[in-house]
Fold this sequence. Notes:
- The chain is built from 2 helices and 5 strands.
- Strand 4 and strand 5 form a beta hairpin.
- It has a single domain, classed as SH3 type barrels, CATH 2.30.30.
- The protein is globular and about 35 Å long.
- Strands 1, 2, 3, 4 and 5 form a 5-stranded antiparallel β-sheet that branches.
Amino acid sequence: MKIPDNYIVFGNSEEKQAKYKEWGFKSGKNDEIPFLIYKGIYDTVIPQKCDIIGYYNDVEILIELQESKQRLIIDRRYLKQMQSKSFNINATE
């Protein structure tokens, strides 16, 4: 998906922590931002650590893959599913 020009980048670490918590990527009062793994279709080699660097709307978030530095817009719920050890890109629902 083409990255829109008007996405929102986190203004500071507090905003980022609040969004991680709101979206279910972080729980509790721990200030540490957890690392996330991208296991999606654009990763042709191995799963990569990624970071949420912003968002477009309430559902679509902007991530950056750690190794390739590739930026992608992805549904935040899909990225949340990828964090499960049992996630399989080829599984059908």
